Amino acid sequence: MKKLIVVVLISVFTSSFSIAGGFQVNLQGQKQTGMGHTGTGLLLDNASILFNPGAVSFLDSLRGISFGASFIMPRTTYLAPYPGTYTANIEPHTGTPITLYAVYKFKKTAKWNLGLGIYNPFGSRIQWADDWNGNALIREMDLKTFFIQPTFSYKVSDKLGIGAGFIYATGSFSLRKGIPIQDSTGVYGEGKLSGKASGYGFNAGIYYKVTDKFSIGIDYRSQVKVKIDGGTAEFTVPSSLEKYFPGTTFSTGLNLPQVATLGFGYVANSKIKLALDINYIGWKSYDSLIIDFVDNTEKLEDIHSARMYRNSFIFRLGGQYKLNEKWTVRLGTYYDMSPVQAGYLTPETPDADKLGITAGVSFNVTKKIHIDASLLYIEGMKRTDTNKETEFGGTYKSKAVVPGFSLEYVF
To answer: Which of 67, 162, 214, 331 has its CB surrounded by the most CB atoms within 10 Å?
Structure first.
């Protein structure tokens, strides 16, 4: 029973990391997504608030605002260990992360810009059937986060721009899990966990135009230290076991990883732009999970669980071609290396190395109104593993299709 309660609670927090590390889908700009989600070394639009605050000061418009949304449609299949033939699939669903960017410059000759970004860097929903073989690990998880980033950018010279933004993160999650204990009617128990979290961090960048054609960018997004207080845990079990599974609260502290990016941009001519980004994600900071319960029993003790994530890289490449004054098209690709080591794979983070292929298009309705759209396809490599702590193993295969759009208005 003690091991069971550990298993039930651990996945709440591994799930909160699954979007960034386990099944990473970055969707912070439609133009950038169309080009493999590049944009640190190449200035494209207001989304530079996230990709490189140092580039924001080079935006031509005095003021602009853009709103975007993406529609994540993931699919994951589980196959039981050999010689088993049991399979399971996650329930179909659609996630809808959004972006909102606004930029303000006092006058054309001003060297500084102000900006505001609101975006969802972590957040998704995953649901398996209530009676699937791993229901004691997870039935359903729903995670929502919002990062709010006011930003200041300063053009040091015609070649160099610097910028930084303060990040306030807020979010919520809920989780359902089965408990393999039957009541008198044969119905299995269930655990429900929920909580809210908040934290702080920063985003800083440098943008340098080496020549009129070639530019370099460096961006650093700090760890966001998330503090969760007053999370609730509720359990449905036979009355004879209720004293071991009391409704209680818990707290924990976690670090969402730092992300350092080196980006290159190349403007071949008035029609062609190319970009290359290399992301380094500091997942090594997530080496353990510690949960402190307000109420403990002999079966419900505080938890210290090894996670042992490793730092990882993402390599991104993209390009765009301007057809005419109205239309621009884009293509891109990336390779995302998994931070989850062998022995730590879970159905909340059925992670593997991933290949992403992207496409995008822009249409200028008028000089002030622009529409951007993108399409991302992610193919995860097949991966077989057995978790050291839960001893639950199998083979996972994941993929996702993600269309998206944004509307921009330039004042």
So the answer is: 162
